[in-house]
Design brief:
mainly alpha; Arc Repressor Mutant, subunit A; three-stranded antiparallel sheet
Amino acid sequence: MTGRRRFSPQALAVLAALCAAPGAWHHGYGIARDTGLSSGTLYPILIRLADRGLVAARWEDGQPAGRPRRHQYQLTPEGLAAARAALAGRPAPGPARAARHRAGPVGRPGLQEPS
């Protein structure tokens, strides 16, 4: 690890979600729920983190009834160290960002509700 790695705000959110329980395996839907990221944003981040050796990925054991097996993700020891270092330098979210996150999706300007 030469040089400092930079992470996007979205990647930092993924790292923070994985750091919440670093020894546990997390599935993508749970990470998406925790971060508010869409699958089109989340999965490329997880792939890049895995390619960099920061995240390990595996298929869930067994075949659950009624649904396909999930892909699971866990920080590697190197990933945990990198995540903690990156998150230590991250400013806490401001009140406006936190309020936006709790408020949920916002409609587009100019669109009206159907009558």
